[in-house]
Design brief:
By secondary structure, the protein is α+β, with helices and mostly antiparallel strands. The protein folds into 2 domains: 75 residues, OB fold (Dihydrolipoamide Acetyltransferase, E2P) (Beta Barrel), CATH 2.40.50; 122 residues, de novo design (two linked rop proteins) (Up-down Bundle), CATH 1.20.1440.120. The chain has 7 helices and 8 strands. The longest helix is centred in the last third of the chain and has 23 residues.
């Protein structure tokens, strides 16, 4: 049996003397692994870089087998990824989180398309952190942990929303928070798609999305902690504040 798709290379590791095992996030077949014969060769190895856009043909005798990939490059993102530390750490964070969270062989076309768009912004350091924050919000939604930031969970108001409940993922107004404010997560305007998205708001937003990824999604899947690549990206980004 076989199928053909296009996708984003997440990981590649040497297998034996000449082959490589790669993991690709494809649009219609999800996160999928397979063997690339000759993947360690001088001809193919440079193609197998994280973030690369590939056309892949997967073949196996049975569906449950790991199978083999034939790969053709569609778009390399190596130059953009190595344009600076922020771009490289951001790329590493994205591929690490996708490998960590997405079930194998389960399609997620929505987050796939948003990931492809995010990858195409690599190297544009002025806009990439905001795009990445929106991608994490979309990832939470895709994994069933979307945040409800439309109205206060306590008072029902849509005004003065300043916090997010770490228990429910719902917005809380300054009035509704009361004495519990110091136990809540920040809700900067950027998380609601408002304002000019300054870096300090993006950093606050990443603190909130990071909490739910680490303390809600990861435990529900039975594995923690989050990949270190995310923390390295956040650290790299906050250094410029």
């Amino acid at each position: 049996m076989d199928w053909r798709d296009h996708g984003i290379l997440l990981t590649a590791r040497r297998h034996g003397e000449t082959a490589a095992i790669i993991e690709v996030f494809t649009e219609t077949h999800g996160r999928h692994a397979g063997v690339v014969r000759g993947g360690a060769s001088r001809k193919i190895a440079p193609i197998l870089q994280p973030g690369a856009q590939l056309d892949v043909l997967w073949r196996a005798r049975l569906q449950e087998h790991i199978g083999t990939f034939q790969v053709e490059p569609l778009r390399s993102r190596a130059a953009a990824a190595f344009s600076g530390r922020l771009a490289l750490s951001g790329l590493n964070a994205v591929v690490a989180l996708l490998s960590f969270f997405l079930p194998e062989r389960e399609p997620h076309p929505g987050i796939y398309r948003q990931t492809e768009q995010l990858m195409d912004l690599l190297g544009q350091d002025e806009i990439w952190p905001l795009a990445y924050l929106r991608w994490e919000l979309a990832l939470l939604e895709e994994l069933g942990f979307g945040l409800d930031l439309t109205r206060c969970a306590v008072t029902g108001t849509t005004e003065g929303l300043a916090y997010v409940s770490p228990k429910t993922g719902r917005a809380v107004s300054a009035e509704g928070a009361g004495d519990w404010a110091d136990r809540l997560l920040p809700l900067p305007p950027v998380l609601r798609g408002q304002g000019g998205a300054p870096d300090d708001e993006i950093a606050a937003g990443l603190r909130t999305t990071g909490y739910f990824l680490a303390h809600r999604v990861a435990p529900s899947l039975g594995h923690t902690p989050l990949p270190e690549a995310r923390a390295r990206f956040v650290d790299q980004f906050t250094r410029r504040l």
